[in-house]
Amino acid sequence: MNIPIYNALRSYSDSCPTVFHMPGHKLGKGVPLSLLRDLYLMDLTEIPGLDNLYCPNGIIKEAQELAATAFGADKTFFLVNGSTCGIHAAIMSLCNPKDKLIIARDCHKSAVAGMMLSRAVPIYIKPEFNSSFGIPSIVLEKDIEKALIENPDAVGVYITRPNYYGICSDIKSISELVHSYNKVLIVDEAHGAHLKFSKKLPPSSIEYGADICIQSAHKTLPALTQGAYLHVKGNRVDIEKLKFTLSLLGTTSPSYIIMAHLDIARAVMEASGEENINRLLKEVEMLGSALSESDILRVLSVDDINGGEIDRTRVVINVSSTGKTGFEIEKILRNQYNIQVEMSDLYNVVCITTIADTHEDINRLRSAFLETADRSKNANGQGELPKELQIDAFNIPEQRVEPAAIMHRGFIRRKLYDATGCVSRTMITPYPPGIPVICPGEVISEDIVKYVIKVIEAGGVVNGVSSSLEVDVVE
């Protein structure tokens, strides 16, 4: 039958790949087999006895209360449109039009969209940048305080923690600071739903009083894609406005399969999460030690950041000394070893490990990396990538038009290399990780043009740039 999506999905899973990408159930390995059977029998709707996601008073209410207890929240909402829906709702329930929101620039594109939808005015702060790995690092408390002092009318602060590379800013200090100014703290913790379940990992932001915390269960827990949680702590959040906003943004046909697996993920982690995470951490530690013995591979560790913590289940391997980009190494792992990682960039390969991963999975990854490194060394490929590929991609461009106003402006399409000085209509975003280098309404700089072209030439994907290297700019 000509069913291209189904056929492609089955072809991939039937090839028995070793997967270090989301979703966290890893082709079902992280979910008890008895709970995976006959999924279509759970594809139901709001009939009597099955409750209603947007006004729950039965099984969904009970499941959300169980999740709130498990994650340490005062209230938890199930999201079936992914963390994106939760991020939009959090920003829209906090910000009225023209309200200022202090936001770390390493935010996901969904946060930019949330500000456009709410007509909020972003006050960007720049995270630290690790030039060795070419990645954003922690958000400093002093930079947040500077923004709070300069913008006393801001309604809140928004940070991403952990970031895509597993780097965790000092949430305790940040939370105390933000609350000392009587502001609301929103944390995009999409990559940190597992943190609560092991004392050997950085704490969850909800443990230190984040007012709203959004987590993608499907990224690091045994849950299905689009399954996420929105947690609320304390009394600074208007719960009724938040519920109303979620009901506006969420689908009116929420998936009971996704909701059931949000419930399952919580139950699995409560029952055996700590034991399995601690087992996983031992495997990851041995992996890191083995890779670090190679003189051309480097694994991101807490020593590479200043004042933050690392989620050690996130394995970030710098491959720049192989003479190859992360994009090239990713292709080698996929084509020669049937290993699919989460993402790569110019310098690094990023692997998501979860409780579903086994000793055999980790061992295959270790062997593949060491063999690839040895071949690179023997082929005289050793040597750092050219410095012109290195750019602090999170320098904050000039905001010439407010993001929300862009939605009502005319635009033209222009070649990227002719777009320097133009105002972008769209987000220009290397994907993954989905962090915009240009947001709507910002001026496209020459450095950004050069960087984006280098990423594309090196094999990366950049959303917002067409296959013919064109971008939409304001007329």
TrEMBL record:
Cofactor(s) this protein requires: pyridoxal 5'-phosphate
Keyword annotations from UniProtKB, A to Z: Aminotransferase, Decarboxylase, Lyase, Pyridoxal phosphate, Transferase
Keyword Lyase annotated: yes
Location of the Orn/Lys/Arg decarboxylases family 1 pyridoxal-P attachment site domain: 4-293
InterPro entries named in the record: Orn/Lys/Arg_deCO2ase_major_dom, Orn_Lys_Arg_decarboxylase-I, Prn/Lys/Arg_de-COase_C, PyrdxlP-dep_Trfase, PyrdxlP-dep_Trfase_major
Coiled coil: none
Domain Orn/Lys/Arg decarboxylase C-terminal: 408-454
GO function term, MF aspect, one: carboxy-lyase activity
UniProt family annotation: Belongs to the Orn/Lys/Arg decarboxylase class-I family.
Protein name, UniProt field: Aminotransferase class V-fold PLP-dependent enzyme
The species this protein was found in: Acetivibrio mesophilus
Highest classification ranks of the organism: Bacteria, Bacillati, Bacillota, Clostridia, Eubacteriales
